[in-house]
UniProtKB/TrEMBL annotation:
Any one biological process term the GO annotation gives: protein K48-linked deubiquitination
The protein's enzyme class: hydrolase
Pfam families associated with the record: MINDY-3_4_CD
Reactions accelerated catalytically: Thiol-dependent hydrolysis of ester, thioester, amide, peptide and isopeptide bonds formed by the C-terminal Gly of ubiquitin (a 76-residue protein attached to proteins as an intracellular targeting signal)
Boundaries of every Deubiquitinating enzyme MINDY-3/4 conserved domain copy: 2-103
Designated gene of the protein: Mindy4b_0
Protein name: Ubiquitin carboxyl-terminal hydrolase MINDY
Species for this entry: Cisticola juncidis
Family (UniProt): Belongs to the MINDY deubiquitinase family. FAM188 subfamily.
EC number of this enzyme: 3.4.19.12
Length: 108
């Protein structure tokens, strides 16, 4: 029998397969599971379990700004500009959200 916590998690957790590697993306705010208003600006954490990643990445997600505004502000515009696979995965749930890596180098 499956535990109720596995069927209805207390915290948001996503298992990811990015570029053929398995990883976990999770949040520590349980309101993300039930209150859409808390999806304005929130924090997620990413851990790949790979040797190259020495610490869990802390990400700030802003669902009300636009990724092209972030690119203009940081001088990242231009054709062929690659976005990390993790950002693209996050945008499948929160379309157009900006992702701040908070000082961590983005994983490609």
């Amino acid at each position: 029998q499956v535990s109720p916590e596995l069927r209805t998690p207390r915290l948001p957790v996503w298992l990811c397969s990015l570029s053929g590697r398995h990883s976990v993306l999770f949040g520590t705010d349980s309101r993300l599971l039930s209150d859409w208003k808390s999806e304005r600006i929130f924090h997620l954490y990413f851990h790949s379990g790979q040797q190259e990643q020495t610490r869990t990445a802390h990400l700030t997600i802003d669902t009300h700004s636009h990724h092209w505004e972030e690119a203009q502000r940081e001088g990242l515009c231009g054709p062929g500009r690659r976005r990390p696979a993790l950002e693209m995965a996050i945008r499948t749930k929160w379309a157009g959200a900006t992702v701040s890596w908070n000082g961590t180098d983005p994983f490609f």
